[in-house]
């Protein structure tokens, strides 16, 4: 950050910064070609587009302009955007001396202007990349926060006076709507936007100041876009939502969702909070309402367990309008002003007074504009008048010469197209043709009503001339034929309708086109053919000739199927144009001579642009004729940036609508590659072509004077006018004289520019008003045209089709009538046949069964009839239930409860009267208060139950540990059964163990109970503690409440909620008393009815009696009272069927009257008179019926008295007359007496109610005072609760830590005892061998370096412990180094010496390992204990700090309570006291000033005096109790010492007995609980069963062995026989060998004589013989081997003997025969 600041008196020049028009260099177009004249629109849908500079100056953004509007004079001043890209956001500094304008564009500027000098004061740069979405100052105006839009969403905090960035951070990756500083904490910010809210904090870190953001989490609440929010003093944030409820954010989460009672939304639609004033939170919504909510209720709101919503009722409400949609609101600059200015999204600026008083004026609409995009604009062809229409359902007419709005008319649907009829159609020039979104076209006539008697206004008016509906969708284009005889309308339903122009427009017909209609352009007069050019949004162009109504013949439909047409389907050529431009550029580069001829390297060329056809096709924006059959098109989307010259194809294809056609020429629109032309117009002198661009700019092109068609569009004049993002300029027009240009865009802005030469601009405004068309004579007498208000009304074509359908239906009905007639004739014939059949003889007569139809047809008919009846019943039942519910609602609405009716009962003779009290229904606030009290009671009971559950004793940890130890279960076969004796032994052992366990458990419970009752060292007597608490609660502070140091007890402290509940209780008490007296008055009224009925009955009897007496004996009867209307309020709203029928009849009679309101009022008055007459008649009938009943009851008595004699008749009649008169007087007297008693009760209640009102007034004053203090008190109470919670948390942690530390100390003691036991075991093992004691002691004491397997610990304490361990190892290595420097070394110690028992040495090594383990464990336990001690110390320090903070918070809270009590002491309380009730207890004369006098009740004073004596007595008693307690304490201390000594003696004795009997200490409880082991018994039983099974298996194996032995014997015999056989074979073999030897000898002799061939043959034969014999021997050798083995058998038989043949000489083989035979063969061969 820079150290040197920017000077405060430095300014920038606005003229150097302000953007102006762009003119092509070298062009002759002047810079001031168009000058802004006036702005008629308002971008009402832009967020926060209304700011207040002072009480009379409003500023808002209109396109590229900032408009400064004077509210009183309606004059406008303008500031233009400096960048030319538009304005993103505006904001006024809290001092009202500066305002910020955040612009749009590449690296937009944020400019600070000084007001009212309008100088450029500061410029902030590089705050975002493309546009700002919101800017805001902090509360003192020293800092400025800015938010960028996509793509960076950069949040920047500026020191704007020095043009420096304080902080910068990316806000989010979503669209952001708003950012603001906290008005209570300058270091906090909040931002909100699409589906998020984020809370920022300027944190001071070690690297400097940074922005830290925390995104709000919606939790269970659905995510919503947050348009607005407000921060509360305690840091909470209240935001709006899309569904109309308020969200209370605490931290980063939603604490509660606030809604109205009954779950209704706070507002219908979106809601935004905007102010916190006078204890109420103000909100506005899109429903046009402003509501005030109690801030304290919202701030302390909390959700219930079942729902996250909090219901409450608004305390104030102002409905601006039902069609109003408020989007932002700013307050007047005056101090304590209640005036606000509101932005209405429907196109208005309102002035509101939010004082919420009876004298508050109604909301005032200061300015009215179009709400939303302007869909249609056109100018008059004869005057400076302009007409516009938009989707806000309005049509407005402006005088752009006088800069005023003349008139505005609203309709049921939004306007979508508008055209001002030319003079050829309407000579007055006041006819407007307007199309609407429901397909209706209205002809509106503008006229001046001056001089007309039926119109009492002087301004211009719009009158509906005709309305018709040619389309089923929105009308998008309207155009007149140049002669004014045909009107064409186009719609998005893909149809074009033609009408014949006249006094009344008549439909001609329609045609269908391939897409939604965008442009309708009639051919100019220069064309020979009168045709219509239809441009569709899909890129299709259709041309049709002008239809002639005389030649067309339409029958069933208005569709003109025979009308010829030509079609064109646009095909994109932009990619091809780009490709050709790139080729031309490359060719030009190749043709240029290279600067460096020796250059050899050639750069690689990039690929050419590919041919691309967009799908879906680019939309059409505009089109107009150039020549007959040729036209220009302006396309959007991909194909923007060119004007395409097209013509219709000469091909007559059937599918011409889908055939793509390419333009034959084009003109490039320079510097508008992605900016298309949306609208085109030509100036009046035909020299300029004005284009409205998609970017909201105006372009002016000069035209060739020879022909009015664009040839080259290189030179142009451009000025950005409308918003560059969404202000598409779709409407641009020139005035009839060419002096003005009018533009209207999608941003809702309308601008007028002057298009004049410089010398004519000074004389332009001589005439200050435009001429309004004069009044026609017929308008005053002509009836109003009938409008089409129903959006579902039939269009012209649909109506015609409906008529055709109705005709068909009538034809069908006629046919059905004929069928019914035919059926009736058949039915008559059938009846005649039945009659004839009955007349026939029986044997030829047909039976009824034979005459009946098929039974299945009847069943189907019955089923169908039942289904239809069921449907009708269901429908009627629903209607009946619906009507019944509606009747009940109406009765409840009009009648209400009897408590709300004002009843007055009059006395009969006296003039007294008594009236009931008006008791309004319980307000929702009281109901909510009662619900809260019930909920609080339920919560208290639940908390008490939870406390009880927490206070229950917890089991000892050791018990739970023992219970949690898993026992290893040994599974045994389920089939094992124990013997009865074993089971009985086990059962007895188990019972004995259970009894011992039960005794042990009982003993443990007794000890636990005893230890639980054992008081701690610092414990006090519970009775004493209870008495002290009771004394503190009841004694209180003896100071007066007026004392500065007076401390009010906690249970008597009052808060706003408790005061509200007190007021609610008082109101409920008043209500109960009023209800009770009301019941008595109603009962009195009923008794009066009964008295009146009896009086009337008695009067009738008196008349009958007096009819029997002469007139001179008649006594005058008393006047009979009547029932007044005040005594029957419940009869006012009663209604019967006759009254409803009468009302319906009167309504139908007057239904034709024009003045419906006056008619309704007169009808209700007349009906009311009739109802009053009917009520009087019903009253008389009721009383007469009661009188008749009384008379009937008394008739028997009179009948009994009708038979006296004639002499006594007169005297009896006189007696009856006197008795009846006395009876009447007594009835009246008794009623008046009851009435008087009731009146006295009411008067007494009035007196009490007056006291209650005074009490209520006092309570209300106290409530207001408490509300002022309650805010700070709640903050302090929350702070105190937080400290208490933290203190309890630390206490619990400290207790846990101390318990863990105590356990660690116990573990350390146990380890030390085990270490001692190891040492004892070592010395015990050396008891017999003292020779090697020193050496074994060295081995036992040696410290070894042992490898430890430690787990990786992630905290610093574990690392510290490991480091300490390593240091310990190093230390003891150093310490013992001297002892182990002997030559033997470590290896010598590890060796067992000679003559030493190896088992003893091994035992010593094992003891050493155990000792080392215990030492390591002991070290670890000590380190853990040290860590716990340090943690306890830290917790104690924290606890002290928290306790100090808690005490400080308690002192602050006590201070606030004292201040509150002092303020409450200043309130005046009215106490009505009579003089005889006052006594003065003052010695001396009565002082004149009684302001310091204390007023006490006499009984209370006596009680205080008596209490003094009681306290003295109690004091003496407490002293005596204290002395007795001290004596008892000394005695108990001595007894405790004696008991401890006795316990130690018994412990030693028990240990000696255990060592004597068991040799070691054992657990006696374990011995007592030992029982029989069922598993051991089962194992024994299993062992016996297994032995029996094994014996049986051995027996089976013995049998198998015996069988095997027999088989072996049999096999041995068989083998012996085979061996004998083999022996015989060997003998035969031996004989054969002998014979063979003899034969060989003989042959040898013969061979000596033989020679030649004979010898060889013989040798061969012999060899063959030897070979065969060898084979025989080989076959015999396996059997020989088998026979030679023990137990072997012969499996192969000997081969058969080959018969001997004559020897032949063969070749000798070396492999034949056995060795001996082979050798002989060789000998023979030799």
Q: Strand order, main sheet: write it out.
A: 1-56-55-54-53
How many distinct helices?
A: 24
Shape: extended
Strand content: 15-25%
- Most strands sheet: 5 strands, antiparallel
The gyration radius over C-alpha positions equals 59 Å
Spatial separation of the terminal alpha carbons = 131 Å
Question: Low-confidence spans: pLDDT under 50, at least 5 residues?
Answer: 595-603, 946-975, 1154-1161, 1186-1204, 1349-1389, 1685-1726
How would you state the average pLDDT, rounded?
Answer: 80
Keywords:
single chain; five-stranded antiparallel sheet; five-stranded mixed sheet; disordered C terminus
Write the SSE topology.
Elements lengths: L13 H4 L4 E2 L11 E5 L11 E4 L2 E6 L2 E6 L5 E5 L6 E6 L5 E6 L6 E5 L4 E6 L7 E6 L6 E5 L5 E6 L4 E7 L5 E6 L6 E6 L2 E10 L2 E8 L13 E3 L5 E3 L6 E5 L2 E8 L10 E7 L2 E6 L3 E6 H5 L9 E4 L3 E4 L6 E6 L7 E6 L3 E6 L10 E5 L5 E6 L5 E6 L3 E6 L4 E7 L4 E6 L10 E6 L4 E7 L13 E8 L6 E6 L5 E6 L3 E6 L5 E7 L4 E6 L8 E6 L3 E6 L20 E5 L3 H18 L28 E8 L2 E6 L6 E6 L12 E2 L3 E4 L8 E6 L5 E6 L3 E6 L14 E4 L8 E6 L5 E6 L4 E5 L22 H5 L14 H44 L8 H4 L3 H41 L8 E3 L6 E3 L8 H28 L5 H8 L15 H34 L8 H14 L20 H52 L29 H13 L6 H45 L8 H117 L7 H9 L14 H20 L9 H5 L8 H68 ...
Parallel strand pairs: 22-26, 47-51
Antiparallel strand pairs: 1-56, 2-59, 3-4, 4-5, 5-6, 7-8, 8-9, 9-10, 11-12, 12-13, 13-14, 15-16, 16-17, 17-18, 19-20, 20-21, 21-22, 23-24, 24-25, 25-27, 28-29, 29-30, 30-31, 32-33, 33-34, 34-35, 36-37, 37-38, 38-39, 40-41, 41-42, 42-43, 44-45, 45-46, 46-47, 48-49, 49-50, 50-52, 53-54, 54-55, ...
Helix pairs in contact: 12-14, 12-15, 13-14, 15-19, 16-19, 22-23, 23-24
């Amino acid at each position: 950050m820079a150290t040197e600041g920017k000077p405060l008196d430095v300014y920038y020049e606005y003229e150097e910064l302000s953007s102006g028009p762009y003119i092509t260099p070298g062009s002759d177009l002047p810079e001031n070609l168009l000058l802004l004249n006036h702005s008629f629109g308002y971008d009402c849908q832009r967020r926060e587009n209304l700011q207040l500079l002072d009480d009379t100056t409003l500023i808002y953004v209109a396109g590229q302009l900032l408009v400064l509007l004077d509210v009183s004079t309606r004059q406008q001043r303008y500031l233009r955007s400096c960048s030319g890209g538009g304005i993103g956001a505006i904001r006024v500094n809290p001092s009202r001396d500066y305002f910020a304008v955040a612009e749009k564009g590449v690296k937009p500027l944020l400019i600070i202007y000084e007001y009212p000098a309008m100088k450029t004061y500061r410029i902030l740069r590089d705050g975002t990349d493309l546009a700002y979405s919101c800017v805001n100052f902090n509360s003192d105006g020293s800092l400025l926060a800015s938010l960028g839009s996509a793509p960076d969403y950069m949040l920047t905090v500026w020191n704007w006076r020095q043009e420096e960035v304080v902080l910068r951070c990316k806000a989010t990756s979503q669209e952001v709507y708003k950012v603001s500083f906290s008005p209570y904490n300058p270091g906090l910010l909040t931002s909100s936007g699409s589906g998020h809210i984020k809370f920022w904090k300027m944190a001071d870190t070690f690297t400097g100041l940074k922005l830290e953001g925390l995104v709000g989490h919606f939790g269970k609440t659905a995510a919503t876009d947050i348009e607005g929010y407000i921060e509360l003093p305690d840091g909470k944030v209240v935001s709006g939502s899309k569904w109309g409820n308020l969200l209370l954010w605490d931290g980063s989460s939603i604490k509660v969702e606030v809604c109205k009672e009954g779950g209704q939304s706070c507002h219908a639609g979106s809601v935004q909070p905007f102010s916190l004033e006078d204890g109420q939170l103000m909100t506005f919504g899109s429903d046009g309402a402003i509501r005030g909510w109690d801030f304290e209720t919202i701030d302390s709101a909390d959700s219930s367990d079942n729902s996250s919503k909090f219901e409450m009722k608004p305390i104030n409400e102002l409905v601006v309008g039902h069609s109003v949609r408020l989007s932002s609101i700013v307050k007047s600059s005056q101090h304590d002003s209640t005036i606000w200015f509101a932005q209405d999204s429907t196109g208005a600026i309102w002035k509101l007074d939010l004082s919420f008083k009876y004298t508050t004026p109604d909301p005032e609409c200061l300015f009215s504009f179009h709400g939303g995009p302007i869909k249609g604009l056109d100018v008059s062809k004869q005057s400076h008048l302009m007409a516009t229409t938009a989707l806000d359902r309005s049509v407005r007419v402006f005088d752009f010469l006088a800069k005023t709005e003349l008139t505005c008319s609203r309709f049921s649907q939004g306007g979508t197209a508008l055209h001002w009829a030319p003079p050829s159609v309407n000579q007055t020039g006041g006819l407007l043709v307007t199309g609407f979104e429901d397909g209706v076209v209205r002809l509106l006539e503008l006229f001046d009503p001056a001089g007309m008697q039926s119109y009492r206004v002087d301004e211009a008016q719009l009158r509906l001339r005709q309305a018709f509906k040619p389309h089923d969708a929105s009308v998008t284009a309207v155009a007149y034929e140049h002669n004014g005889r045909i009107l064409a309308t186009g719609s998005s339903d893909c149809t074009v309708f033609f009408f014949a122009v006249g006094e009344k427009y008549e439909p001609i017909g329609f045609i269908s086109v391939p897409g939604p209609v965008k442009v309708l352009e009639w051919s100019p007069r220069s064309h020979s053919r009168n045709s219509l050019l239809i441009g569709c949004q899909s890129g299709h162009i259709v041309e049709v000739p002008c239809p002639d109504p005389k030649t067309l013949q339409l029958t069933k439909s208005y569709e003109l199927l025979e009308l010829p047409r030509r079609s064109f389907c646009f095909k994109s050529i932009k990619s091809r144009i780009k490709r050709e431009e790139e080729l031309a550029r490359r060719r030009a580069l190749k043709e240029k001579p290279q600067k460096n001829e020796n250059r050899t390297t050639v750069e690689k060329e990039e690929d050419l642009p590919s041919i691309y056809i967009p799908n879906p096709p680019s939309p059409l924006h505009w089109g107009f004729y150039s020549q007959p059959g040729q036209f220009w098109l302006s396309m959007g989307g991909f194909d923007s940036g060119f004007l395409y010259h097209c013509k219709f194809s000469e091909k007559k294809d059937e599918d011409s609508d889908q055939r793509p056609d390419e333009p034959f020429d084009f003109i490039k629109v320079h510097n508008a590659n992605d900016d298309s032309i949306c609208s085109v117009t030509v100036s009046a002198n035909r020299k300029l072509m004005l284009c409205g661009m998609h970017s909201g700019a105006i372009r002016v092109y000069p035209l060739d004077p020879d022909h009015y068609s664009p040839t080259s569009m290189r030179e142009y004049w451009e000025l950005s006018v409308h918003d560059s993002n969404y202000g598409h300029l779709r409407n641009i027009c020139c005035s009839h004289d060419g002096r003005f240009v009018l533009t209207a865009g999608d941003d809702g802005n309308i601008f007028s520019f002057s298009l004049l030469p410089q010398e004519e601009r000074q004389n332009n405004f001589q005439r200050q008003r435009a001429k309004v068309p004069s009044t026609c004579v017929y308008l005053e007498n002509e009836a109003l045209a009938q409008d089409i208000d129903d959006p579902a009304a039939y269009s012209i074509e649909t109506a015609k089709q409906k008529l055709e359908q109705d005709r068909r239906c009538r034809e069908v009905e006629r046919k059905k009538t004929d069928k019914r007639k035919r059926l009736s004739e058949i039915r008559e014939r059938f009846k005649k046949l039945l009659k004839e059949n009955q007349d026939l003889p029986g044997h030829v007569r047909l039976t009824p069964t034979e005459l009946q139809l098929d039974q299945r047809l009847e069943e189907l008919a019955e089923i169908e009839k039942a289904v239809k009846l069921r449907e009708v019943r269901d429908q009627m039942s629903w209607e009946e239930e619906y009507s019944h519910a509606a009747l009940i609602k109406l009765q409840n609405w009009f009648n209400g409860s009897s408590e709300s009716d004002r009843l007055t009962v009059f006395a009969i003779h006296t003039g007294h009267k008594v009236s009931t009290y008006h008791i309004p229904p319980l307000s929702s606030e009281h109901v909510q208060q009662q619900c809260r009290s019930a909920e609080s009671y339920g919560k208290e009971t639940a908390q008490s139950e939870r406390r009880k559950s927490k206070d229950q004793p917890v089991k000892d940890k050791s018990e739970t540990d023992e219970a949690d130890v898993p026992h290893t279960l040994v599974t045994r076969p389920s089939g094992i059964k124990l013997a009865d004796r074993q089971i009985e032994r086990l059962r007895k052992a188990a019972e004995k163990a259970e009894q011992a366990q039960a005794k042990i458990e009982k003993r443990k419970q007794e000890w636990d109970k005893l230890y639980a009752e054992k008081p701690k060292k610092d414990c006090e007597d519970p009775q004493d503690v209870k008495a002290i608490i009771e004394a503190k609660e009841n004694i209180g502070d003896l100071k007066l409440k007026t004392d500065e140091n007076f401390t009010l007890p906690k249970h008597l402290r009052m808060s706003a909620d408790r005061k509200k509940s007190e007021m609610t209780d008082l109101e409920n008490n008043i209500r109960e008393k009023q209800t009770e007296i009301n019941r008595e008055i109603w009962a009195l009224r009923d008794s009066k009815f009964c008295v009146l009925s009896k009086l009337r009955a008695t009067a009738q009897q008196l008349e009958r009696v007096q009819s029997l007496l002469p007139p001179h004996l008649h006594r005058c009867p008393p006047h009979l009272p009547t029932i007044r209307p005040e005594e029957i309020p419940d009869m006012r709203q009663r209604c019967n069927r006759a009254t409803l029928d009468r009302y319906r009849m009167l309504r139908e009679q007057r239904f034709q009257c024009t003045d419906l309101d006056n008619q309704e009022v007169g009808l209700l008055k007349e009906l009311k008179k009739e109802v009053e007459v009917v009520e009087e008649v019903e009253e008389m009938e009721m009383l007469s019926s009661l009188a008749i009943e009384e008379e009937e009851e008394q008739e028997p008595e009179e009948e009994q008295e009708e038979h006296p004699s004639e002499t006594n008749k007169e005297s009896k009649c006189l007696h009856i007359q006197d008795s009846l008169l006395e009876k009447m007087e007594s009835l009246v007297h008794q009623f008046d007496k009851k009435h008087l008693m009731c009146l006295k009760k009411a008067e007494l209640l009035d007196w009490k109610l007056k006291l209650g009102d005074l009490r209520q007034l006092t309570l209300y004053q106290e409530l207001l005072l408490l509300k002022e203090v309650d805010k700070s008190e709640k903050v302090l109470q929350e702070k105190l609760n937080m400290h208490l919670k933290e203190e309890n948390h630390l206490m619990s942690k400290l207790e846990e830590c101390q318990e863990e530390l105590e356990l660690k100390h116990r573990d350390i003691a146990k380890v030390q005892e085990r270490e001692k036991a190891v040492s004892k075991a070592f010395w015990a093992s050396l008891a017999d061998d003292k020779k090697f004691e020193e050496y074994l002691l060295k081995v036992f004491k040696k410290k070894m370096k042992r490898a430890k397997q430690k787990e990786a610990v992630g905290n610093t304490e574990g690392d510290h412990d490991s480091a300490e361990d390593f240091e310990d190892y190093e230390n003891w290595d150093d310490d013992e180094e001297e002892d182990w420097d002997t030559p033997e070394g470590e290896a010598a110690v590890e060796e067992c010496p000679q003559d030493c028992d190896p088992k003893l040495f091994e035992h010593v090594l094992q003891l050493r390992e155990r000792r080392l383990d215990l030492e390591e464990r002991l070290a670890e336990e000590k380190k853990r204990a040290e860590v716990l001690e340090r943690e306890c110390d830290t917790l104690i320090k924290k606890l002290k700090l928290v306790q100090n903070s808690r005490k400080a918070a308690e002192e602050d809270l006590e201070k606030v309570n004292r201040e509150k009590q002092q303020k409450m002491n200043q309130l005046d309380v009215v106490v009505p006291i009579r003089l005889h009730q006052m006594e003065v207890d003052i010695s001396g004369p009565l002082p004149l000033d009684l302001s310091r006098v204390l007023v006490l009740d006499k009984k209370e004073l006596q009680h205080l005096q008596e209490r003094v004596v009681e306290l003295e007595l109690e004091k003496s008693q407490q002293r005596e109790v204290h002395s007795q307690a001290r004596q008892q304490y000394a005695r108990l201390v001595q007894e405790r010492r004696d008991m401890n000594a006795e316990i130690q003696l018994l412990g030693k004795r028990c240990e000696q007995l255990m060592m004597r009997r068991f040799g070691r200490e054992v657990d006696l409880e374990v011995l007592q609980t030992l029982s029989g082991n069922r598993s051991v018994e089962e194992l024994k039983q299993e062992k016996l069963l297994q032995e029996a099974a094994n014996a049986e298996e051995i027996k089976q194996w013995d049998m198998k062995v015996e069988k095997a032995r027999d088989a072996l014997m049999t096999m041995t015999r068989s083998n012996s026989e085979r061996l004998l056989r083999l022996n015989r074979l060997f003998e035969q073999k031996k004989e054969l060998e002998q014979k063979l030897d003899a034969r060989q000898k003989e042959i040898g002799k013969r061979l000596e004589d033989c020679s030649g061939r004979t010898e060889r043959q013989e040798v061969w034969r012999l060899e063959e013989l030897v070979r065969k014999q060898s084979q025989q021997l080989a076959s015999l050798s396996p059997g020989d081997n088998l026979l030679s083995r023990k137990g072997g058998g012969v499996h192969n038989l000997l081969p058969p003997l080959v018969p001997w043949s004559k020897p032949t000489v063969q070749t000798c083989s070396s492999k034949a025969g056995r060795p001996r035979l082979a050798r002989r063969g060789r000998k023979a061969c030799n």
